Amino acid sequence: MKLLNVDLGERSYVIHIGAGLLQEAGRLFAEKGIPHRSPLMIVTDRHVAKHHLAPLRQSLEAAGYRVCEAVVEPGEKTKSLDMLNSLVATALENGLDRHSTIVALGGGVVGDLAGFLAASYMRGIPFVQVPTTILAHDSSVGGKVAVNHALAKNIIGAFHQPLMVLYDTSTLSTLPEREVRAGLAELLKEGLIWNREFVHWFDEHAEALLALDADALREALYQGCKVKAHVVSQDEREGGLRAILNLGHTIGHALEAVAGYNELLHGEAIAIGMVGAAKLSIRLGYPEAETVYRETKRLLQKLGLSVSIPAHYDTEAIMSAMMHDKKFKEGKMVFVVSPEIGRVEIRSDIQPDWVREIIEQLKRED
Ligand SMILES: NC(=O)c1ccc[n+]([C@@H]2O[C@H](COP(=O)([O-])OP(=O)(O)OC[C@H]3O[C@@H](n4cnc5c(N)ncnc54)[C@H](O)[C@@H]3O)[C@@H](O)[C@H]2O)c1
Ligand SMILES: [Zn+2]
């Protein structure tokens, strides 16, 4: 098992990463001092529940905890105020009080929803993240929790740090292959923004990661969480530095919006966005940017991901989705660009025409 500390003063916590942690959960909860007198509530989704709810529940009960559960429908639609409302009812019916802990067992959808429940129920109770997707290395660390509104994603939320994160790599064996590839794209992003050695390591271990090799996953999630933890501990409430995590996300979010959030997975959209950011870096004249572009594209293709925008996506619709994302300052766009592998810069002088041109090029990318 690997341990990683997220350094946030009194809100600091430990990320545990390794195979078989669900079975250790009861012991780890007790060691953390999570009280036995109040019930715990596991929030999970139907896909995850099928494989991983019983072992977690058993482990907690064996350690003397009273446990109730809420199994929600999988998918982004579940991150809603309606669902929050129904979870509050479940919490009240089961007698959750201020000493209760919410346990988020699942991917980013469950983490964000259950995290926001914990942030708001009785003005805030503790919660534990038990991530079960690769992408959740990002969502389970850092304390951003939220639900969606019909008019905007993640618009109702809070900063609420978990008590700890239990990342059981063996849960990933049931993850659909497409989710694996997409999650690995986000993991590669952590290397591209911060850690050149990790990018080399990732290249050498791409096959092992795709095969869900336990050692490779533990190391990669450790390195990915480490980047996220470092950035978050410098900038807990998103004052500035945290924005570097958005490499590939300006174009990526716009593609998700245009595709309607079910055609492209988040990781698939940001994979294309990262290639777009690399192209923009070339345009800005950074000497190493050609290498960034070539390597980013090669690594994403090695993961089996597409790096081109589907031709039927309307360029102007993508541009207007970016405008909607408010990443504009006085007619210029704000973009995370990659001068070299392992380092990014935030530029606020990007001309929309350059981006439009890159979107067009990305439709012909192969
Ligand atoms: N809070 C943050 O900082 C942050 C950061 C990034 C993303 N997010 C949010 O994360 C969400 C996306 O997260 P995600 O990609 O993990 O999606 P997800 O939670 O929807 O999970 C993807 C799919 O995989 C299934 N699944 C999850 N774990 C499984 C397992 N072990 N075995 C089988 N099936 C499994 C789920 O049921 C779902 O169908 C978005 O809502 C996004 O806004 C939040
Ligand atoms: Zn992301």
Automatic annotation (TrEMBL):
Keyword entries, A-Z: Amino-acid biosynthesis, Aromatic amino acid biosynthesis, Cobalt, Cytoplasm, Lyase, Metal-binding, NAD, Nucleotide-binding, Zinc
A Gene Ontology BP annotation from the UniProt entry: chorismate biosynthetic process
Annotated GO MF terms: 3-dehydroquinate synthase activity; metal ion binding; nucleotide binding
Functional pathway: Metabolic intermediate biosynthesis; chorismate biosynthesis; chorismate from D-erythrose 4-phosphate and phosphoenolpyruvate: step 2/7
Enzyme Commission number, as recorded: 4.2.3.4
InterPro entries assigned to the protein according to its UniProt record, in alphabetical order: Dehydroquinate_synthase, DHQ_synth_AroB, DHQ_synth_fam, DHQS/DOIS_N, DHQS_C
Pfam families referenced in this protein's UniProt entry, alphabetically: DHQ_synthase, DHQS_C
Binding positions (Zn(2+)): 186, 249, 266
Name assigned to this protein: 3-dehydroquinate synthase
Lineage: Bacteria, Bacillati, Bacillota, Bacilli, Bacillales
